[in-house]
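Chapter review: from sequence to fold.
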Amino acid sequence: MTDLETIAAADFGRTLRGVGVNLLCRDLRGMAAFLSGCFGLSIHRLSDDFALVRHEEVLLQLHADGTFGRHPLIDLLPENPPRGAGVQIYLFGIDPDAACARAESAGGVVIEPATDKPHGLREATILAPEGFAFSPAVPLP
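The C-alpha cell string follows.
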C-alpha cells in the first residue's frame, strides 16, 4: 500500500487507477473536518490547498479553488454555494444512522434521514458544507 503521507506527487499520480473523484472546495480544511467527523474517513496530506481522503480502498482528492487557477472548471463554479448539486457520492459500509447522528456537529445537514430502500440498502443523504451530497449506506439484512 502506498504511503500517502510521503509519496511524491508525480509518483502518486502514476498509482491512480479506475475512477477518481476530485472535489473543489472553498474551505478545504472545513470539508476535510466534515468528512472525518461525520463519516470517520481518514485524511492524509492535509494542507490549505490539498488533501487526500480515504474510505477503504477509495481515495477522494480535495483541492482548494486556488489550485485550479488554469483549469476550465474554475470558471464554471457558482459564485454562491451550494456547489455539488446533482452529484451524490455513496460511502458504502458506513452506518447511515450513526452518520446522521454526527452530521450536524460535523457541519453537515441531513437532507434524507436513514431509510430502508427497495434496492436493498439502508441509506441517508447528508449535505456537506460545500454542497456535495454524501450517502452513507449499508446492506439491509
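Two observations follow directly from the output. The chain has a mean pLDDT of 89. Residues 17 and 136 are 23 Å apart (CA to CA).
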